[in-house]
């Protein structure tokens, strides 16, 4: 039975936040029904903001560190654990529910709203994830997850107390109302992040705006609805704290664009010429002016370096073209550089490029520097580019449709690419290959990550595509183990450069590793270097590895 609302006795409370006691009715400026609705509306907004903070940490960690599965697991598990700690800690604040909730929301708005900017600043100005600060940013990520989780967890007991102080009801009904508003708010926040905040505002401004909303709603709820529950000193302290938080968030929002440009220069150097956020990833081009080499970065990772890209693309494409090659499929390769090598071979009638990022294709087609590097491959009438998921495209492709397939995809241990190195995926590739067709796979640096490389080999064999392995060293193979890659150094990524690239040439029967004698001579690749690369790769073999599948990825 719902008890009537009884005003609290007059008299100043004994502390800065009035201790009303558990479930004691609060002196409200509105009717209890309206007050209850306003509290639940505050629960809804705060839950939406809390989930945005969680998703923002996951997204930023995946972009800066990589391996999205690991980063999501770390952030979410730490945050859920911290929410439990926050709930326990909030028990001591129940007697001061209104003041405690107001202080809590101000702190959460500041920490959650600024988290993306702080993490990106650490990444940009401490040399990435290498050197002395190798583990510092990761520790900071866990610290933000822990702090935000504690603050979110502390909201629930305080909000429960506020609902009961508006109008007493049975605990089960109050819990049901609270969690209904909380879960619906989480749904809205979870959908708003990928579909509104991220594409239209970006991670930095989106997080700052979320913090602003969080602070405004928290302050309005406490100072508007429960202001009589606070002393004059408490009201001024909360008002001052929220004004400072909003001023900091507003200043950061105004400076976000300048900050992002400065951080990008700190990461990529001063030669940034193009920086765009496509629907799929961040694409950055540096150099190609005043004699500076062109480098292409995708989501912060060096994908193309002008000084070495020809060695990579010739090694990827040329051995696969020694045989029938009228119909060629390139998976990935939106930069057009693999297509450049394919189109040099006589007898090529059609080249299909399946690239998930239409923005990268437009850049490769129209950017003067990148289109010059790919020798205007997209202007060749034989080339047809499509934007599609590779899995979906292969499932709708007729059998034996291609003589050659070039898999120019990111390394298999990047989570987004793992399914494209699975036994199921290679089974689809085997179906679309002609009986005497060939498949070339970039499988990561064999010398640096031999277990990953030979897992790709085992997966190909499990799909009925025995392969021959080979590697190609960097531009100066003698110093590759010691010298940092210049593109990685410019990006602040001081980890040692890969000691070359590893490739697998596969077919229905074990293929021979040769170059097409009818094609123009490669600039960097020779039959002798190719044979030497096969011997080098064979020495790194890790036997007995199981294949990787969709339900059991092993990279």
UniProtKB/TrEMBL annotation:
Reactions catalysed, as given in the entry: S-adenosyl 3-(methylsulfanyl)propylamine + putrescine = S-methyl-5'-thioadenosine + spermidine + H(+)
Regions of compositional bias (Pro residues) in chain numbering: 1-16
EC id: 2.5.1.16
Catalytic EC class: transferase
Residues reported to bind S-methyl-5'-thioadenosine: 281, 355, 389-390
MF-aspect GO terms: spermidine synthase activity
Family membership: Belongs to the spermidine/spermine synthase family.
Compartments it resides in: Cell membrane
Keyword Transmembrane helix: yes
UniProt: spermidine binding residues: 313, 335
UniProt lineage: Bacteria, Bacillati, Actinomycetota, Actinomycetes, Kitasatosporales
UniProt xrefs under Pfam families: Spermine_synth
Record's subunit section: Homodimer or homotetramer.
Pathway the protein contributes to: Amine and polyamine biosynthesis; spermidine biosynthesis; spermidine from putrescine: step 1/1
CDD domains assigned to the protein according to its UniProt record, in alphabetical order: AdoMet_MTases (cd02440)
SUPFAM superfamilies attached to this UniProt entry: MFS general substrate transporter (SSF103473), S-adenosyl-L-methionine-dependent methyltransferases (SSF53335)
InterPro entries in UniProt: MFS_trans_sf, PABS, PABS_CS, SAM-dependent_MTases_sf, Spermi_synthase
Function summary: Catalyzes the irreversible transfer of a propylamine group from the amino donor S-adenosylmethioninamine (decarboxy-AdoMet) to putrescine (1,4-diaminobutane) to yield spermidine.
Positions of region (Disordered): 1-21, 517-555
Protein name: Polyamine aminopropyltransferase
Transmembrane segments: 37-65, 71-90, 102-127, 139-163, 175-198, 204-224, 236-256
Superkingdom of the source species: Bacteria
PROSITE patterns for the chain: PABS_1 (PS01330), PABS_2 (PS51006)
Residues of the PABS domain: 247-494
């Amino acid at each position: 039975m719902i008890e009537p609302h009884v005003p609290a006795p007059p008299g100043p409370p004994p502390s800065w936040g009035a201790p009303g006691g558990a479930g004691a009715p609060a002196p409200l400026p509105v009717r209890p029904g309206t007050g209850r609705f306003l509290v639940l509306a505050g629960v809804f907004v705060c839950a939406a903001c809390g989930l945005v903070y969680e998703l923002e940490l996951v997204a930023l960690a995946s972009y800066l560190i990589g391996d999205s599965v690991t980063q999501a697991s770390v952030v979410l598990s730490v945050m859920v654990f911290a929410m439990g700690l926050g709930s326990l800690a909030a028990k001591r604040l129940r007697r001061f529910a209104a003041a405690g909730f107001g202080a809590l929301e101000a702190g959460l708005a500041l920490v959650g709203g600024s988290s993306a900017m702080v993490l990106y600043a650490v990444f940009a100005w401490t040399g990435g994830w290498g050197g002395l600060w190798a583990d510092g940013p990761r520790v900071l990520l866990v610290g933000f997850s822990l702090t935000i989780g504690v603050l979110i967890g502390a909201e629930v007991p305080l909000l429960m107390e506020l609902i009961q102080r508006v109008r007493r009801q049975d605990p089960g009904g109050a819990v049901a109302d609270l969690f209904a508003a909380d879960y619906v708010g989480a749904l809205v926040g979870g959908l708003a992040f990928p579909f509104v905040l991220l594409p239209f505002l970006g991670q930095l401004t989106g997080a700052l705006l979320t913090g602003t909303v969080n602070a405004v709603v928290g302050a309005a709820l406490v100072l508007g609805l429960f202001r009589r529950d606070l002393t004059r000193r408490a009201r001024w302290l909360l008002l001052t704290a929220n004004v400072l938080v909003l001023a900091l968030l507003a200043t950061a929002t105004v400076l976000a664009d300048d900050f992002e440009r400065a951080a990008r220069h700190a990461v990529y150097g001063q030669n940034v010429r193009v920086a765009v956020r496509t629907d799929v990833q961040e694409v950055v081009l540096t150099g190609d002016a005043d004699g500076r080499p062109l480098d292409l970065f995708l989501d912060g990772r060096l994908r193309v370096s002008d000084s070495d890209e020809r060695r990579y693309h010739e090694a990827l494409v040329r051995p696969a073209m020694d045989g029938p090659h009228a119909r060629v499929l390139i998976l990935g390769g939106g930069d057009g550089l693999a297509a450049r090598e394919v189109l040099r071979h006589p007898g090529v009638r059609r080249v299909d490029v399946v690239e998930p990022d239409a923005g990268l294709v437009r850049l490769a087609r129209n950017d003067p520097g990148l289109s010059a590097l790919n020798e205007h491959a997209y202007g060749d009438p034989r080339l047809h580019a499509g934007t599609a998921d590779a899995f979906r495209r292969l499932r709708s492709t007729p059998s034996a449709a291609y003589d050659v397939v070039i898999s120019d995809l990111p390394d298999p241990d990047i989570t987004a690419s793992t399914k494209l190195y699975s036994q199921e995926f290679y089974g689809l590739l085997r179906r679309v290959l002609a009986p005497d067709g060939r498949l070339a796979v970039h499988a990561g640096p064999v010398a640096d990550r031999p277990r990953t490389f030979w897992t790709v080999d085992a997966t190909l064999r499990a799909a009925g595509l025995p392969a021959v392995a080979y590697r190609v060293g960097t531009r100066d193979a003698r110093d590759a183990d010691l010298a940092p890659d210049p593109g990685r150094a410019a990006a602040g990524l001081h980890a040692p450069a890969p000691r070359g690239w590893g490739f697998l040439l596969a077919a229905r029967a074990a293929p021979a590793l040769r170059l097409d004698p009818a094609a123009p001579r490669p600039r960097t690749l020779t039959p002798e270097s190719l044979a030497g690369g096969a011997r080098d790769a064979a020495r790194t073999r890790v036997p007995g590895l199981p294949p990787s599948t969709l339900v059991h990825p092993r990279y």
